[in-house]
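Standup notes
- HV: blocked on the assembly model, inputs below
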Amino acid sequence: MNQDLWNQIFGFANYGELLALVKNSIIAGAILGIVGGLIGPFVMTRDLAFAVHGISELSFAGASAALLFGVNVVAGSIGGSLLAALLIGILGAKARERNSIIAVLMPFGLGLGILFLALYKGRSANKFGLLTGQIVSVDNPQLTMLIAISVVVIIALFFVWRPLSFASVDADVARAKGLPVTTISIVFMILLGLATAVSIQVVGALLVLSLLVTPAAAAMRVTASPFLTPLLSVLFAVTSVVGGILLALGGGLPISPYVTTISFLIYLVCRVIGARKERRGDSGRLVSAGLPKVRIEA
Amino acid sequence: MVLITTDKDPVAADTETPVLSLRAATLSFGGRELWHNLNLDVQPGEFLAVLGPNGTGKTSLLKTILGQQKLTSGSIEFLGHPVGRGSKKIGYIPQQKLLEQGTPLRARDLVAFGVNGNRWGLPISSKAVRKRVDDILESVGATDYANVPVSTLSGGEQQRIRVGQSIAGDPQLLLCDEPLLSLDLHHQRQVSELIDEQRKALGTAVVFVTHDVNPILGMVDRVLYLAGGRFRVGTPDEVLRSEVLSYMYDTPVEVIRSRGRIVVLGAPEGYGVHDHLEHHVVAGVGR
């Protein structure tokens, strides 16, 4: 392999000095990993993976508008995210409606974003960063804002966790028990909008799924425990982000390919483990029940 | 011939507050009346079966009790108060719906939702809650698969867990929406016996929506039969008779009792033939 290319992808010259420079980014990356890892299992059980993608495109439009008009990019990104999340949450209660709304919103958002970027005369790295991630170039005030939002999302998630899980997997019964299922779902969309907006700062609008969906999908291949799933999902997301930042450091390339690759490899490993577990018939059943099981499919 | 009039409620003399009370309740959709002037009291520990073909408002009745559907006129009270949007004191067994493969939820977690799913915060259960969940799993015979992902359980197993979940909050009213659908006879009997045991042990009132009364015939105190925009309330012997159903369907119908089972012959849309009926009813609403 071409040595230059190799060094560009995995360069470790002056690594110590570089590390000191990006210490804040690593902390921010870890916190964003926690957000993505925690919210991911809910994205999966509520079947919102496509919605995440749609939200991120509108978030991209918001961020590029902010870039063009010279206002805070994180704020612009959050504005676009929340708007998309609320539209999807309010208009798309049913999965089919939701998918069509997302499919309508997504190209519109992406188109607007491209328009704003085309009009923007500043550094081109800023433009590219919105699509593919730029945490290393995020300045300190923005970094503080990202961390603050992440902390708010984490605390809010912890507060609504149990009713949110109940409403996510078992909405009819949750509603019968008197839970405000619709309100919970709107609250969740707001949290998802915020999480998407902060994740965009790390991996960019195009690759947000690798932080909000892949770690949770990987965790769900190996466990069905409602405790282990978020724990593993957080572990996977943090490993991907921090690992990605560390690997990307030397070469001067965007971090997103590293993040997405680590996250993808973890998923592959989990799939293999999950398939083996299934083949062994290791479902956690104590003994097979004595009575013959007749299963009638509807 | 004894036609059961709606205001003569065999248990109404009881001075206890009824668990459920409907007065002159009417529900209509777009000009079509599902039921009109329904008066009904359900007492603690009573087992009420709601029968009738599809499209006659059986599930809508449950939705009304759960506050998800407003009456067109009349009133409905749960434990002496107008119904709210659901209640912790109501247990609910939905139609069997297999959970999505890969859902991060074990059988015990579904039951735990029945105990404390309403509480805010992280899903960390106290020792007492875990003990309660274990006891319930044992009482519905699901200990063996307590830690198995719900989505991998068979239909019968899932419905057992559902019964466990519904009784976990010690409800005063148990609403069952076709809980036996798509179960084989063996599991139909097991699941309905579990429900019956629960109401006997704790005096829970049961409202059991079904298209087929036979699996629960031995447990039912009263029947609410909905058909053709009419309804009848009474014991199974009072309501499930040829002359009563002939009047409701407005056509000769024969009710045959054979070896403890009830078969209805000649009902216009067929008894238990839902899809056809649904079709028929929808088509008949002046599209």
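- HV (later): unblocked. Chain B has two domains: 1-89+171-236, 98-170. Residues 61 and 87 of chain B are 16 Å apart (CA to CA).
- Next: hand off to the docking folks.
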